[in-house]
Amino acid sequence: MTREEWEKLLQPYVQTVDELKVKLRGMRSEFEIEGIHTPIEFVTGRVKEISAIEEKLVRRHISMDRIEQDMEDLAGVRIMTQFTEDIYKVVDLLRQRKDIVILEERDYVTNEKPSGYRSYHIVIEYPVQLSSGEKKVLAEIQVRTMQMNVWATIEHAINYKYDGEYTEEMSEKLKKAASLSMEVDKLFSELHNGLVHTANEAQDS
Prior knowledge:
Elements: H1 3-34, E1 42-47, H2 50-59, H3 67-70, E2 75-81, H4 84-96, E3 101-107, E4 120-130, E5 133-145, H5 146-161, H6 168-204
Parallel strand pairs: 2-5
Antiparallel strand pairs: 1-2, 3-4, 4-5
Helix pairs in contact: 5-6
């Protein structure tokens, strides 16, 4: 495919990412206006790079005529939270929305991958409005804490540099880092819950 053909194919996904980012950031603003803790810390998004799409087509044996049905992460949005419990609050908020249809959920927070990777993945169908009419596209939303995101970002960079060929020592260090990251998340949650409990006691007294 030419560059122009790729851009035409991916334009609905660019629009989808832009719209979802605005809507999710709007949800965060609602909590901030109310003066209560927001489960959404920040939101990012991207459309998959053409080179990454082509690589995945080969690796997953996906034909071009099936790309929009079989590649669910052409459009990707990531929601970062401060605390692990916020992940599930965000998931509940997404389940209540009427402008998306949730097709699949994968909980790698409770059921982390062998590598140590943790995140909550949601595959959605989103109706994007184009000049030619409505088009329903697939998108993936990832929800994770900032600690989980740091680990995943570093792991991704190492994986890219070494083309997935880890030494046993590297693999063990990544798992150890993932375990430490989980402990940090637990400590932050305990600190947060302790502050909330103290504040509630002060209000009741």
